[in-house]
Amino acid sequence: MSEKFKAGLALTAFLALVTGLQLAVGYGFYLALEPDGRQNFAAMLAGQRELLLELGLLELGLFGIAFAFAYQVYVKGSLKIAEGVHIILNANPGHRLESAGPSALRQAAQAVNALADHSETLIRDREARIAEAKCSVEEEKNRLAALMSELSQGVLVCNLDGRILLYNERARQVLCASAASVQCGCSAPLIGLGRSIFAFVDRSLLAHALESIQARLEKSEADPNAQFVITTRTGQFVRVNMAPVLTAAPPLPHPSESSPHAKPSITSGFVMTVEDITRSFELDATRDMLLQSFTEGSRASLAGIRAAVEMLAYYPDCEPADRHRFIQVISEEVGNLSGKLHQLTADHVDSLKTRWPLEEMPGADLIEAARRRIETQPGLAVASAEFDGSVWVKVDSYTMIQALSYLANRLKEEWGVGELQIRLSRHARIVQLDLIWTGSALSQDILRQWEQDSLRAGGEDNPLTLYDVLERHGAEMVYLMDKERNRSLFRLLLPLAAPLRPLPGAPIRYGESRPEFYDFDLFHRAGQTPELDQALLTDLSYTVFDTETTGLDPSAGDEIIAIGAARIVNNRLLHYETYEQLIDPKRPIAGAAQLIHGISNEMLRGQPTIDEALPQFHEYCADPVLVGHNAAFDLRFLQLKEVSAGVRFTQPVLDTLLLSQVLHPRQESHALEAIAERLGVAVVARHTALGDALATGEVFLRMIPLLAVHGIRTLGEAREATEKIFAGEY
Asked: Which of 258, 354, 378, 641 has the fewest CB atoms within 10 Å of its CB?
């Protein structure tokens, strides 16, 4: 029943009551008169019938106006105060009531505000005490987050239902490069808290691994792990190591009755480490192919050599011409073998050049490692190094240190150098690494020879040459001579690296802790259920989304130009699992729309089309429920593109615009900014798809406890309430 309908019924009842009272009073007065008086009174009324009707209608109108004013001031004002109290208690302790209306209501609002101030003070004091008590827990959490973010291997933790409870950025990099994202340039992460690992690992393969782990646990083996290899959508090979997460078994009902087959622990989940082995797999395959080719290709040559040697051994007195022919066969076959071996070595070196990836590291660490290596193996003293501590370099530290050690070894053995100095400095976007010594000048011929020789230092041989190492790094080496100081130096020009790199897909928010890519509470939560209408709102996962468009009329050809979304899992809005994509609409943007969202036509050139981006967004929306503000507008644009994009959005949808009308029917505005202000949500980046999606998610989380106050706890109840609002029945 709508608010207007209730007010109409109340006004009708009031007017009927007033009319009835008037008729009762008039009839009583009539009965009190004498018979002659009654006749005179009736005659007087009959003569003034029209005037009396007009006076009656005027009186009823005045009574109606008075009732409407009283209802608006007292009844509706009181209900508005009740709404504000619910907001303070369940969503936003900082909300305050408006002091308006008659004196009694103003005093009530002031009293509620004073009580809210006192309550907020107590809440802040309690939160401060809780924060202090949780300080050590927060430190442990940050240590875990730091450890996870710095690991070079991808790590995931899942419960037995295959739901992801923890992951790090490396795991997302290894597993989430889908073919669609590569094609259209989208950045939607397919991995996420609460999502299923079966999107990446075959269910039967994982079940077999769990059975293997369980069998080893029952045998009490020391290392109950499993290992297997999977392929990603782009054909990458990923090695997976899986270990169980063990929890203590419940105590026996009778501790004295111990069973020899009792299990000391049970499996509640599993830990997976993932590593991309595509490159090493290819290198191993290349190496095996080279070895097989050399083996197969050498058999004929070895057979020819063996036959010639046997003929010379068994027939020492053969004719000189025959002896010459046998010796020539041996020489040719040995030359053939030597050529194949040389080619094999060259091919192996080519593969070795790309085996070690370049990594970013502080220049000071590179210098310290090189100093230790030179002092240990070539045995040269290294003087105090000069370096800029803020410089980072992008190098393969292993081969670069080998190259520096090689140069030091050649200087010691061939030129008698006994002491070196290493200097590191920055010049524009180039790092200058200088190897300095005192002594005679070197010729260019010697330098060219050193560049072409393989790296040998301290008894270690490397088939790479100094030229190979420099080429691998995109670096150059120059020789400089300071005749006045009688000093020489090798200067290596290396690429400069930035010391800080934000993780892809994880925007840095200063003042916050590291990204929270974990939620261990999911260990104890039930899996997704098909009976969504019976599921509690607090138990569901959501995708909150928003779009920006070229205009407001999709039927007239307006198109989506941006999609933003975020996920809500376990009643938390995951700021680091967001989706944001600009889209080329292939048509100009309306001027009015551009003033609102600030997206220009130039910003959209080269972006994927809606048919390319929508499948990736659909894959991101794996959660069972969608949430939006004025969601009907956004869904209409999406639904018009479902056929061409080959997807369908079948999830139920909750609209925060309609939910706000359910919760606060007496509020004047239900715009996103107004709702956010009422519920104490800060809106950042308004009128951007991702900014509005994040604001809508925060608003929705504040609404859930308010809905519970109204008896709306399940998805079905929320949908029914919004349907009534839409139909004008609430």
From this structure: 258
User: Is the residue at 507 inside a domain?
Assistant: no
- Asked if residue 632 lies in contact with residue 659, where contact means CB atoms within 8 angstroms, the answer is no
Band (pLDDT 50/70/90 cuts) for residue 562 is very high
DSSP H or E run through 457 = strand 454-457
The pLDDT value recorded for residue 699 is 94
Identify whether residues 288 and 323 lie together within a single domain: yes
Per-residue pLDDT band for 458 (boundaries 50, 70, 90) equals low
pLDDT for the residue numbered 526: 44
Q: Which two tokens stand for residue 297?
A: 């290709």
Q: How far apart, in whole angstroms, are the C-alpha atoms of residue 24 and residue 729?
A: 37
Same domain, 547 and 619: yes
- End-to-end C-alpha distance for the chain, whole angstroms: 5
The total of structural domains in the chain comes to 5
- Identify whether residues 163 and 86 lie together within a single domain: no
Assessment of whether the complete model's pTM goes beyond 0.70:
no
Residue 586 domain flag: yes
256 part of a folded domain: no
Judge if 657 and 606 occupy the same domain: yes
Query: Encoding tokens for residue 538?
Result: 């607090």
Question: Distance (Å, rounded) from C-alpha 215 to C-alpha 238?
Answer: 25
* Statement: residue 506 has pLDDT above 50: no
CA angle 482, 486, 487 (to 5 degrees): 60
The 3-state DSSP class for residue 370 equals helix
Residue pLDDT, tens place only, 619-672: 999 888 999 999 989 999 999 999 999 999 989 999 999 999 999 888 888 899
The pLDDT of residue 548 is 92
| Distance (Å, whole) CA 80 – CA 82 | 5
- Span 121-144, average pLDDT: 76
**Residues 50, 102 within the same domain:** yes
Signed CA dihedral, 681, 683, 684, 690: sign only: positive
- Closest CA relative to residue 404, chosen from 380, 440, 438: 380
- Which of 180-194, 226-240, 518-532 has the largest mean confidence? 226-240
Closest CA to 667 of 107, 74, 76: 76
CA distance 717 to 730: 13
Separation of alpha carbons 620 and 186, rounded Å: 11
Shared-domain flag, residues 664 and 548: yes
CATH number at residue 399: 3.30.565.10
**622 C-beta neighbours (distance < 10 Å), count:** 17
- Domain edge (last residue) among 497, 515, 536: 497
Torsion angles phi and psi, residue 238, rounded to 5? -125, 125
Report yes or no on 505 lying in a domain: no
- Measured CA to CA, the distance from residue 323 to residue 317 in angstroms comes to 9
294 with 241, same domain: the answer is: no
| CATH code assigned at 548 | 3.30.420.10
Same structural domain for residues 669 and 565? Answer: yes
CB contact set of 130 (below 8 Å; sequence gap of 6+)? none
CB neighbours (10 Å) of residue 114?
A: 10
Contact 438, 419 (CB under 8 A): yes
Q: What is the mean pLDDT of the chain?
A: 77
pLDDT tens-digit map of 26-69: 666 666 666 766 666 666 666 666 666 666 667 667 666 666 66
What are the Cα distances from residue 669, in Å, to 191, 212, 657? Answer: 38, 60, 10
Active site residues: 687
397-415 and 466-473 helices, crossing angle to 10°: 150
Q: What is the CATH number of the domain that holds 150?
A: 3.30.450.20
**Residue 189 near residue 176 (C-beta atoms within 8 A):** yes
Q: Tell which of 113, 131, 149 closes a domain.
A: 131
